[in-house]
């Protein structure tokens, strides 16, 4: 490697270490790393801006604005209470219902937003049932990452992959939807073996049945508008390839309509956007741009080609497992930001890369279940749990999450091998 490559790699490694160890906030680390790329001459301000993926940023901002309005209606809290009542207060059925709700919502909203909405309701219901909420939180963390894997907008890595590879909403549904359903079914069975048989009976069913879901509705008119617009949003994404509009346009357009018809305080809605996450993305794109600018991504791509000797199935397996293991210990967002240009480089070498995008998506998103720091949703929901007086330790989560992640990725590997053999 030449001097510029060594410098770029050092900056990248230092940034990742700071993010993993949380010595400083990850946003500060990403911005510091991007500035270091410019300061050392690896990039200029102009070339750094070129590497920022506007499509990804616009989708994230659009979805956050959209959900910022919808959540004011109380729709999600209403759904959670109703689901618990339909389960008749049976703890195991409640757990399964909440797993399914979390997975479904995570497929059509980003999984961080989903856990922020579902988490507080989980504690309200488990308090009424007088049972330990930690198993429910653990299952919802994993369900959010599994469900988010299924669609273009469910998990930030998929947004990044879809933007880079020009993949539609339906592309994700058709290609990663089937293995996600298989994994979800297997994981629910594992949850039963770990938690289901140990949960108490429905002694407090009366408290659950007395909860009034209607009290969760803050604005009935807004709730009706929200349901209609969610349907419009989903249909628009599903038929994106037919209507010919970019995902970013759909997200921003639906957010704009929701803000207009929702008649909420716009300052509050804009403030509800996870701006630290957006800034983190921007800094990260610039850092990875430095790796691309110096040719390090191409070097890594060549190394993978040499190792796999051009064997498609072996390349799929390597990317799947490397993505999963790395995303367990490193937030999957920076990892995917690094892998995207690498896979693009493989395509430039004549390798068929479409299966590799699905391997990356499945590995990075489901791999996030491996540890408590593997994905943003994990950190957010475990933080809520700590504030509620039920902290989840790294070791406590790892003992359950890592084996489940390995089983999940093995299922995905079998699926990919059968599909592309």
Averaged pLDDT, please? 86
Put simply, the count of helices is 22
* Computed Rg: 21 Å
The percent range for helix content is over 70%
| Alpha-beta classification | mainly alpha
- What is the strand content? under 5%
Terminal Cα separation, in Å? 36 Å
Tell me how many strands there are: 0
Unreliable stretches covering 5 or more consecutive residues: none
Q: Globular, elongated, flat, extended or rod-shaped: what is the shape?
A: globular
Largest beta-sheet characterization: none
Query: What's the order of the H and E elements?
Result: HHHHHHHHHHHHHHHHHHHHHH
How would you describe what is shown here?
This protein is 78% helix and 0% strand. It is mainly alpha-helical and 421 residues long. The model has no long low-confidence stretch (mean pLDDT 86).
Summarize the structure.
This protein is mainly α and about 425 residues long.
Task: Using brief descriptors, characterize the structure shown.
single chain, globular, 78% helix, mainly alpha, 22 helices, 421 residues
What is the secondary structure topology, with strand pairs?
Elements lengths: L2 H19 L4 H14 L5 H6 L3 H17 L4 H12 L4 H18 L2 H19 L4 H15 L7 H10 L3 H26 L10 H6 L9 H19 L1 H4 L3 H16 L3 H6 L3 H20 L1 H13 L3 H18 L2 H17 L5 H14 L8 H12 L6 H27 L1
